[in-house]
Design brief:
Layout lengths: L4 H15 L22 H4 L4 H7 L12 H5 L7 E3 L5 E3 L10 H13 L3 H20 L3 H4 L4 H18 L6 H5 L2 H8 L2 H7 L3 H5 L2 H4 L3 H19 L4 H13 L7 H14 L3 H11 L4 H18 L3
Antiparallel strand pairs: 1-2
Helix pairs in contact: 5-6, 6-8, 6-10, 10-11, 11-14, 14-15, 15-16, 16-17, 16-18
């Protein structure tokens, strides 16, 4: 995976609410789907066919003990928690870490992390990743030719500032070698569990080292899917969209167009907009009538279990 983690953290989660950018890009037709909206009488009337329930039961969100919204809030930085409704929300992060010395920001968080504070651990992960990514990127010669002199000077000043802020942090062996993302996800950070399936470098290391430990990749797949299902069960729009993408791509989960479509329907139901409406319509084209009916029934089951009061 290329070093795009910072862009994913800062931009993807934010734009998610406006256009579902965590879903795969498709050729989108203009027609919109039709299905029951939240709170409609159709909710009670729809039931998942027995064969579909058996086939997809293990792929639905985990709902054994759905947390309260206060419990969900305790697992997310208040600054990035954005609520849609009584039971639905998304994560929007505009600032990875505050400006200034990165090590001075991280140091007070270490003891909290050691005591199991998932939010502190996630903040350490974000700060360390920010420093790693920005300094690894450095100047971009291929893009510099497109910049005027003022823009090039601004870019160099930005790199110099980042280096100044991150220099001492990058010399700290513990910070640089600890798998903060995996630890934050294990401790229960919802934001970390969302990023776990995206930032494979932080979890598995560089691509060149992964062949020596194929079991680690299998464990990452299993954990990534379990985390997304658990977070989706809390009513998180980001996780629901990521699951649609996961079942379409077949990387962390088996390819399943019905489930992919079902999760896209739920995402569109929570935040109905032109992008999501066109997206589910384009997905619908690849399904038979029987598959669409099964997926629509599954979407009602998912929505009822994760997102209704």
């Amino acid at each position: 995976m290329k070093r795009t983690t910072r862009a994913l953290i800062v931009i993807a989660a934010t734009l998610m609410a406006a256009g579902g950018v965590w879903l795969a890009v498709r050729n989108i037709p203009e027609a919109q789907p039709s299905y029951a909206h939240p709170g409609s009488a159709n909710d009670a009337a729809v039931s998942v066919p027995t064969h579909a329930a058996e086939a997809h039961n293990s792929a639905l969100p985990l709902t054994a003990s759905r947390p309260t919204m206060d419990e969900i809030r305790s697992r997310i930085d208040p600054a990035v928690f954005k609520q849609f409704s009584e039971r639905t929300y998304y994560v929007s992060r505009m600032e990875v870490r505050p400006p200034g010395d990165a090590l001075a920001f991280v140091d007070p968080l270490r003891s909290r992390s050691r005591n199991g504070d998932a939010l502190a651990t996630n903040q350490i992960y974000l700060a360390v990743t920010d420093c790693k990514d920005n300094l690894a990127a450095g100047p971009h010669p291929e893009g510099a030719a497109l910049l005027n002199e003022s823009q090039r000077l601004s870019q160099l000043a930005w790199i110099e500032r980042k280096f100044s802020e991150c220099a001492t942090l990058l010399q700290d062996k513990e910070l640089m070698t600890t798998n903060w993302l995996s630890l934050a996800a294990e401790q229960g950070s919802i934001e970390a569990r969302l990023l776990y399936s995206i930032d494979t470098d932080s979890v598995l290391g560089a691509p060149s080292t992964r062949l020596s430990n194929p079991q680690a990749a299998i464990e990452w797949q299993e954990n990534a899917l379990a985390y997304l299902k658990e977070v989706a069960a809390t009513g998180n729009l980001d996780a629901l969209s990521r699951l649609s993408n996961a079942y379409e791509q077949g990387v962390i989960a088996p390819q399943d167009p019905e489930l992919s479509y079902a999760y896209a329907l739920v995402s569109n139901r929570i935040q109905h907009d032109a992008y999501r409406a066109d997206l589910v319509r384009s997905m619908e084209k690849g399904l038979s009538i029987k598959q669409r009916e099964s997926a629509e029934a599954l979407s009602h089951q998912i929505h009822q279990s994760c997102c209704q009061p």
